[in-house]
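Archive entry. Fields below.
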Amino acid sequence: MDLEDQSLIQRMAEEFGSDVVVVLGQPDADSAEITAETVHNGDPTWAGPLAGVSLGLPVYHILEDEIKRQVDPDTYEREVGLMEITLERELILAGLNRVRNAE
Amino acid sequence: MDLKGKKTIALGERDGIPGTSIAECLKSAGADVVLTLTQCYV
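PREDICTED_STRUCTURE:
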C-alpha cells in the first residue's frame, strides 16, 4: 500500500481509535488480503509507516453481504453493480478471511 | 456490524471498486466516512 495512504489511515486510527471500520474495494484475493493485513496487523512488506504497527481495525469488503444489505439498493447498483458481476467475490472474501482467521 | 453512525474508511482500488463509490454506498447506509482513498498500481 502507498506509504502516504498508510500515514493517512494511521492518523485516522489515532484520532478515532478502534471504532473506525475499513471497507475495501480490491479486485482480487491477493490485494484484498495484503490490504486487510496492512490495516489490521501492520504492513507485511515492512516498507511503510504501518510496519510493525497493529492498528487492529475491523476490515470488510464492499461485496460482503453484511455491508451490501445496509446500503441503499439503487446506490449499490449504480456504484458497485457492474464490478459485482465481474469480480470473483468468493475468492476475494477468502483472501479477507485468511487475515481474520489468522487471529 | 451496524454501519449507521460508524466512522469508516473507504479504501478502494482503481482496478476494482474506487474509494468514491464505496464512500457513496457507506453514506447511504448512514455511515460517517472519514477518509476516502483509491489505490492505483501501475
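CURATOR_NOTE: The interface with chain A takes residues 1-4, 6-13, 15-19, 21-22, 24-26, 28-31, 34-35, 37, 39, 41 of chain B (CB under 8 Å).
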